Amino acid sequence: MEYATIKELVSLAEAAETSIWKIVLQVEAEEEEMTEAEVRKSMLANLNVMKEAVDYGRKNNIQTGGGLVGDEALKLEKYLTTASKSEQNNIYNKMITYALATAEVNAGMGKIVAGPTAGVSGIVPAVVLAIGEENSLSDQKLVEALFTAAGLGYVVSRKATLAGAAGGCQAECGVGAAMAAGAAVELRGGSPRMAADAFAVALKNLLGLVCDPVAGLVEVPCVKRNAFAAAHAYTASTMALAGIESVIPADEVIMAMTEIGDQMPTCLKETSRGGLAVTPTALKIKQDL
């Protein structure tokens, strides 16, 4: 059993009357010549790393290479402790805090899970962990959601790119948000087709996003983009669960992302020679560093 497109992945899940995560787990076990239990154990280890990164980033002022970020999650965490109950219980606020926390741990050279890359490592954990906490879900359910995210990202890795240097930040934040959106749908009880629609909606609304890191560091605007992308992913999942479909199929959205990336100037693809990276403030930061 194998799949190379989102359509094939959804078809396999529907034919077996199961969820996307189950197909991804089975394929991974076959390809790695491992038992499903062993593959699950490996993904559980990833989940624990995600939890540790979120916890550390929320509670500590992280020392990063450029010193441009490091306490954003801490500030948000402190703000929410004094905010109203509705603010504290708002799942979006939880997600953006978790996304900032993980992205800052990455910027400080801490241990994270690249999903799909290190620079966007905050998106999938933020969405999966926040939904899990809000609904008192077991680690087993969260692991299953991670398999869904992984399967969707795997298709992109085969059909397009996951590198900002090749496709711009649409290939990183865009794909990370799309992976998280699909996982969120399954966590929230949606169908494989809904997960595919959420993936498509999330990705197509971040098409064209440039990769323009200030001073070449994965700090500005990268860390804050993780938070916005996490909220974006959850929004896409809610729309899909409501029955809102993507007019353009997920696989065609991936194709469009590839074409846009090919047309995008090199200065906007991780070279720090365009966009925010060449604003007066950014150039002064680069000179000071």
Could you characterize what this model shows?
It contains 14 helices and no strands. It has 289 residues and is mainly α. It has one domain (6-288): Orthogonal Bundle (2-methylcitrate dehydratase PrpD), CATH 1.10.4100. It starts with 5 loop residues before the first helix and ends with a helix.
Quick take:
With 289 residues, the protein is an all-alpha fold. The protein is built from 14 helices and no strands.
Q: In DSSP terms, counting alpha (H) and pi (I) runs of 4 or more, how many helices? A: 14
**CATH topology, anyone?**
2-methylcitrate dehydratase PrpD
> How many individual domains?
1
How much beta, percentage-wise? under 5%
- Shape descriptor: globular
Unreliable residue stretches:
none
Helix- and strand-based class?
mainly alpha
- The percent of residues in helical segments reads 55-70%
Distance between the termini: 51 Å
For the largest beta-sheet, the strand count, sense and barrel status come to: none
Name of the top-level CATH class: Mainly Alpha
H/E element sequence = HHHHHHHHHHHHHH
Domain Serine dehydratase-like alpha subunit: 17-277
Keywords: 4Fe-4S, Gluconeogenesis, Iron, Iron-sulfur, Lyase, Metal-binding
Organism: Halanaerobium saccharolyticum
Cofactor: [4Fe-4S] cluster
